[in-house]
Write a structure and sequence with these properties.
- With 119 residues, the chain is mostly beta strands.
- Helices cover 0% and strands 53% of the residues.
- The model has no long low-confidence stretch (mean pLDDT 95).
């Protein structure tokens, strides 16, 4: 499994930007699909974005397309989520997750980082 630690959350005004980072450890990182999920108060955790092991294939939730960008640096074992044009509805705890390429579900999770967008 991959161990994941998120950082970079905080308080930001609507329209602002934040970059989240996820530091990974474990031998399988470079062959894992990585994802970002979020959970707002009183809501279920939802998919935000994912990136394949080589970084060439990305996927986004409709609610964040054109505003968020996921990227990875396999040499540094890092995954990033650049969030622009933030809205109050983006307020949530953001989680980094990993799954092996051949697996269907994400099974390694970080502890989460809070992002709060004020209006």
């Amino acid at each position: 499994q991959v161990q994941l630690v998120e950082s970079g959350g905080g308080l930001v005004q609507a329209g602002g930007s934040v970059r989240l980072s996820c530091a990974a450890s474990g031998r399988t990182f470079s062959t894992s699909t990585m994802g970002w999920f979020r959970q707002a108060p009183g809501k279920e955790r939802e998919f935000v974005a994912s990136i394949n092991w080589m970084g060439g294939i990305t996927s986004y939730a409709d609610s964040v397309k054109e505003r968020f960008t996921i990227s990875r640096d396999n040499a540094k074992s890092m995954v990033y989520l650049q969030m622009n044009s933030l809205k109050p509805e983006d307020t949530a705890v953001y989680y980094c997750a990993a799954r092996r390429t051949y697996e269907s579900t994400f099974n390694s999770w970080g502890q989460g980082t809070q992002v709060t967008v004020s209006s």
